[in-house]
Amino acid sequence: MKLKKGLLFLLLISLLLLTACSNSSSSNPANGNGKGKKYEGTPVNIGFSGPLSGPAAYYGENILNGMTLAIEEINENGGFEVNGEKYHLNLVSLDDKYLPNETGSNAKRLVQEYNTPIVYVPHSGGIFATQVFNEQLNFIVAAYSSEPDITKQGNDLTIRIPPKYEIYLKPFSEYVMKRFGKKIAFLPTATQYGKDWAEKLEPVWKELGGEVVYKSSIDFTKDTDFFTIVTNALKKNPDVLFIGGPSEPTALVAKQARELGFKGGFLVMDQAKLDEMQAILGDWGMLEGAVSVLPLPYSRNEGNKNFIDDYKKKYGKNPTSEAGYHYYSVYLFVEAMKAAGSTDDPAAIRKHIQKAIDRMPSDKRIYDIRKVEKDGGLVTPFRMGVVEKGKIVNMSEKYKN
Hints:
The chain has 15 helices and 15 strands. By secondary structure, the protein is α/β, with parallel strands linked by helices.
C-alpha cells in the first residue's frame, strides 16, 4: 500500500513539473497558415523572434499582424510556385521579451527545429546577437531596425528593412529647434538602440547651435513611473525633449511631461509612432510640436491603399509602419525565392532581392522602395510628420535631405 502511495505521489509531482515547464516557456510558436487551414504544396517556414510580452508586446503584435495578413493572402490565393513546384508559407513566432540573449536562442531553435531560411528580428540588440552566427547556420536575418551599424557588419545574409535613422537627425532637429528653441533634454529608451540614437543625435544638435542640458535614459522593462526622471529633466528648462522607444511607454513619458507643465516640443525616435501615441493619449494636444516619422495612413497612394483598408478591416485599427514594412517584406522574400529558383538557399534568395524589388506587384508597394544597397539595406524615401494645431502635417518634401 505504501509503495502504491509512493508511486502515486511521484506521478503527481511529475505531472506538476510538466505543467510548470509548459507554462513557463517563453516560446510561442504560431501557425501563420490562416487558423489551421490546409493549403496545397510544401510549407516554407518563416521565423520570427521578437517581443510578444512585456512593454514592447504591442510593437511585436503590430509586426506579426502585418506578416500574418501577407501570409494569409498568399496562401489563400494558391500559394506560389518556384521551379514549377507549389509552396505555401507558415509563420513560426517566438517571444524573446526584447532580450538579445533570448533572441539568439530563439533564432537557433527556429533554424534547427523549423528549418527557417529567414528569421525576422525587430530590435537592434537581437539583430546583433543573431548576426554572430547566422552565416554559419545559413539563414537570412530580416532586420527590422533603423540602426545604421546593422549593415556595417559585413554580414552577407542580412537585409535591413527600414531606412537608417541617420536621415532623420538633422531635419527633425531643425524643425523643433526653429519652433521651440535650442535646449534639449535626452530621455530615450535605455536599449542599445536608444543609446546609439542619442550618441548620433548629440553632435548634430550641437552643430546646429543647440545645447544638451540633460542626458539620461529610461528602462521601459523596469520603469513604469516616470515622474522623477522627467522632473529632473525639466529642472534644466529644456525647450525640447528627445524621447522614444515602444509607442505606449513613450506616450506616457510625453503625458508626464505635459502634466508637469512642459510646453515645448518632442523629438521622437522612429521606433515610437505618433498615431499610436495619440491613440494612447486620447488626443493630439499633448503631442503638439512633436516630430517623428510620418505615419503610414497619412500617405495613402495606389500601392498601399488596399493594404491600409484591408488591415483596418481585419484588425480594427490603422496599420503602423511596422505592419506595413513587414507585409511588404513577406511579398519581397517570396518574389526573391521565385527569382532565385529556391526556397531553402538563403544566399541565392539574398542575391535576388533587387530583382524581387523590380518585380514587386504595384499594389504591394506599401512604400516606394526601389533599391537594395550592397550592404543589404533597403532604400526608402524620407518620411517626416509633425503635430501642428491638433493634426499630423506631412513635412517630408520640405525637410527632405
